[in-house]
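During the no-cost extension, the postdoctoral fellow (Dr. R.K.) reprocessed legacy sequence entries with the updated structure-token encoder. One reprocessed record is reproduced below for audit purposes.
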Amino acid sequence: MDIISQLQQEANTIAALAFNTFGTVLQRDTPPVRLSPNYPEPPPNNPADDAAPNFFEQPKLLIIALIKATKQFDSLVAALPLSDGGEEAQLKRIAELQAENDAVGPELQ
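Re-encoded structure tokens follow.
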């Protein structure tokens, strides 16, 4: 698998872990709130007695996995090859490509 595919896969992993981590904290662990006086009082948000023993450890484990995934992403970015000429050459090339697009753009419209 090439490095760009690995970066994309790691970005997807980070997104999924972030979604699950924040969802766990926001949906499961926050206390219920009464939306209106017309609604009954919400039930207390206590974990079930028969819940898995890692109920309170799950957010910590998700955060650890999220940190590991971001470190892996950073190491993949660091492994990317440097382009020739540095940043100035890249900016010059971008300007050239934009000029080409501007010259071709009106003809396509």
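The CA atoms of residues 58 and 83 lie 42 Å apart. Residues 3-84 form one domain. The remaining legacy entries will be reprocessed before the final report is submitted.
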